[in-house]
Write a structure and sequence with these properties.
Layout lengths: L1 H9 L14 E8 L8 E8 L2 E9 L4 E7 L4 E7 L2 E8 L2 E7 L4 E4 L2 H33 L5 H29 L3 H10 L9 H9 L2 H4 L2 H10 L5
Parallel strand pairs: 1-7
Antiparallel strand pairs: 1-4, 2-3, 2-5, 5-6, 7-8
Helix pairs in contact: 2-3, 2-4, 3-5
């Protein structure tokens, strides 16, 4: 599910989130415990509306990989294998740590990566809770056991509670971090699924957003596409 979301982001225009800064350096240390990576090349790729830029690359050697370079801007790129996105990474000043494990893929060590992935961890926890209860409901439907109205209503109420709690978490995160590049990355992920109707929590995010956030290229493109008007 997580990889599918990231793959969807690749097709969206405006993935670059750049902020001016003085010249600085980034360093990436990665560990891989997933099969199929040893001896393969990994690369950092920036996807722009009309241009794809390969920023850095390295080989996986004994489950490790390293990259380093200049970080004149804070930008969102993708770690790729065979030109296919694996996970998003913020290139910024500092020491970035990437873990590609069978159970999870994470990026940490710098402000925007920590912020983005802390949100992602919370979102995945809500998704897993929702999925667990949904699977329980499907099992009950298939088996015919415990199919009384009261049981089904209780399950439906539990699902609604999870959805409401998740939306509250999302809106709180955005309200606290509108000025951070990671907030735009989160918005990209949340709005990546194609839909003709704007979800209520997305509308709530936009209703409360400052003008600087609304003017970000991806956000303004989404607003135009959905016909949103705050006035």
């Amino acid at each position: 599910m997580l990889r599918q979301r990231f793959m969807m982001l690749m097709t969206i225009a405006g993935l670059t989130l750049a902020l001016p800064s003085c010249t600085s350096n980034y360093k990436i240390d990665g560990v891989v415990e997933t099969m199929g990576y040893e001896g393969r090349e990994l690369s950092l790729v920036e996807f722009l509306p009309f241009r794809i830029t390969r920023i850095d690359s390295c080989m996986v050697d004994r489950g490790r990989f390293q990259m380093k370079g200049k970080a004149d801007t804070t930008r969102l790129v993708f770690l790729c294998k065979d030109n296919r996105p694996i996970i998003p990474v913020y290139i910024e000043k500092g020491h970035v740590k990437i873990s590609l494990l069978p159970t999870e893929m994470t990026v940490s060590g710098t402000p925007q990566n920590d912020l983005f992935y802390s949100f992602l961890k919370k979102k995945i926890e809500f998704d897993n809770r929702y999925e667990d209860i949904s699977q329980r409901r499907m099992s009950m439907l298939r088996s015919g056991a415990g199919m009384d109205r009261l049981s089904m209503d209780a399950i439906q109420d539990s699902l609604k509670i999870i959805v409401n709690e998740c939306e509250e978490m999302i809106c709180s995160f955005m309200a606290e971090n509108y000025g951070e590049p990671a907030a735009v990355g989160v918005f990209m992920m949340l709005s990546a699924e194609p839909s003709n109707e704007m979800p209520r929590y997305i509308r709530k995010i936009l209703d409360a957003a400052p003008e600087d956030f609304l003017s970000q290229s991806f956000v303004s493109g989404y607003i135009d596409r959905m016909g949103y008007d705050r006035n």
